[in-house]
Every structure is written in C-alpha cells, then in structure tokens.
Amino acid sequence: MQKIALVTGGTRGIGSGISRALMTEGYIVAANYNSDKRTAEEFHKETGIPVFSWDVSNYDSCKKGIEQVCSELNGTIDILVNNAGITRDSMLHKMEVSFWDKVINTNLNSIFYMTRLIIPSMREKGFGRVINISSINGVKGQIGQTNYSAAKAGIIGFTKSLALESANKGITVNAIAPGYISTDMTEVMRDDIKAQIIENIPLRRFGYIEEIANAVLFLASEKSSFITGITLNVNGGQYL
Ligand code: CAA
C-alpha cells in the first residue's frame, strides 16, 4: 500500500525538493506551507501535490492542519518530514527578543507540536518514519545564529530521545544536518560571507536541494530500517 508522507514547509526550497522526490518515489505526499500562497499554488499546479496552509509554530493550527490532511488523503501519516524553518540572523548583542522567539517557535517548538500530534497514530500502526531537518549550524555553531543554532541543536536532542522512545513501536526517528544549500535562504546572504563559507567546504560549492532530498528518501525507505537516532551530515565534507 502507498505510504502517506507529510512535509512541513514543503512547497519551497529544500522542502519542495523533498516533496517532489517523495512523490517520484511513489509516496502519497501532502505539502504544508505557511503564508506564500502564490508559490504554493504554482507548486501544486506543477506537481499535482496537494498543499495545506497552516502555521507550524502554533499547536492549534497544527492540529487543524493535520486533521485536514488526514481527512483529504483518507489515512494517517506514515512519514513525517519536519522541514519548515526560518532564519533571523543577528549578532546576539544586537538580537531582538522577537528574532529569538520567532526562530525557536518556528524551527523547534513546531517539531514538538507536529510530532506530538502524529506519533500516536504511528505507534498504533506499528510503523513510522520521523525525519527532522536540522543544520550544520546546529552541530558546529555560526556567527549571527545563536537562535537558529540553538533550535537546530535542540532538534538533534529531540531526535535522539524520541528514537529511544519509539524503537519498540516500529518507528525510526532521524535527523539530517544539511550544510549550505543553494536556496532563497542562502541567496540573501552577503557575497563576502558566502565566499568565506565556500572556502571552508571541501567540495568547494553549496549543495543542491536534490542532495538533501536523496538523504530523506533513504531515511524514509526500508533501506534504512536499522538506523535510528542519528544525525546524517550532508554538507560537502565539512569537518564537525
Ligand atoms: N565567519 C567569520 N567571521 C564572520 C562571519 C563568518 N561566517 N560572519 C561574520 N563574521 C564576522 C565579521 O567579519 C565581523 O567581524 P569584525 O567585527 O571583526 O569586523 C563580525 O563577525 C560581525 O559581523 P558583521 O560585521 O557582518 O555584523 P552585522 O551585524 O553587520 O551582521 C550578520 C551580522 C547578519 C549575522 C552577518 O554576519 C551574517 O549574515 N552572517 C552569516 C550568518 C550565516 O551564516 N547565516 C546562515 C544562513 S543559511 C542557513 O542558516 C541555512 C543553514 O542551515 C546552513
């Protein structure tokens, strides 16, 4: 039977690549987005993947959104890809409280909300795959990203603990830590900083969205059945 996959932030950037790859691989896919309706509609027109709008940083919105997905797709979620994330980069000594709150709510609290709502049906079914998108900067830190790094490091701890809780229920829980990938998020960075970062990547380039999507496909598949609680680094060889 075809498995159902839900990708948060699944209509843009890395998330869009993940949604497309899962669909090509034969999964039934639902893609969540927050506010960029135009991009979501274009994505839907192009791929046929149904799109659902809700704010992952709000528990009640997550609850309503998941109920809608399950009702429209007529089933429960087998594969949850917690991908939605934002940046609000700033040196800590200048960081607005709102920058801290927004990043922690969107990048970390969302993972609790989404997974808390979906894990009971996975436990009941005796199968599930939870794949959390962390970041190289949650592993090693980055100037200007105390908020983002704290959230992305938090995801790694969450992943390890939930993997332990879920192992006897047929559910694997893993994280992927992408390095710098060519997307809108990295596009807005200053050119001098980008050049400096590329100098420290052994493969001497930013990654492609498909290179993260391939890692998700592996962790979603039966081929990864003995892997749980890990953080898979996909970063062009950066030493951590
Ligand atoms: N490496 C080394 N030094 C760096 C640096 C870096 N990547 N980034 C900044 N610095 C240094 C600057 O040279 C500067 O040094 P001096 O004080 O000696 O001059 C100091 O840190 C302060 O930096 P700025 O002058 O740039 O300070 P600012 O307030 O104007 O800007 C900032 C701060 C917005 C955070 C800016 O530094 C910045 O954009 N940094 C990059 C942050 C980053 O890498 N974000 C990743 C976005 S992509 C993403 O997050 C996806 C993912 O998962 C990988």
Helical region count?
A: 9
Low-confidence stretches: none
Ligands bound to this protein structure = acetoacetyl-coenzyme A
Strands, count: 7
Globally, the shape reads globular
Q: In which range does the helix fraction lie? A: 40-55%
Radius of gyration: 17 Å
Q: Order of strands across the widest beta sheet? A: 3-2-1-4-5-6-7
The biggest beta sheet is recorded as:
7 strands, parallel
Straight-line distance between termini: 40 Å
What structural class is derived from the secondary structure elements? alpha/beta
H-E string = EHEHEHEHEHHEHHHE
Q: What's the mean pLDDT score?
A: 97
Strand content: 5-15%
Structure description:
- By secondary structure, this protein is α/β, with parallel strands linked by helices.
- It is 49% helix and 15% strand.
- The protein has nine helices and seven strands; from the N terminus they run E-H-E-H-E-H-E-H-E-H-H-E-H-H-H-E.
- Helix 4 (97-125) links the parallel strand 4 (79-82) and strand 5 (128-133).
- The longest helix is centred in the middle third of the chain and has 29 residues, at 97-125.
- The radius of gyration is 17 Å and the shape is globular.
- It binds acetoacetyl-coenzyme A (CAA).
- Residues 87, 89-91, 135-137, 142-145, 148, 178, 180, 185-186, 189-190, 193, 196 line the site of acetoacetyl-coenzyme A.
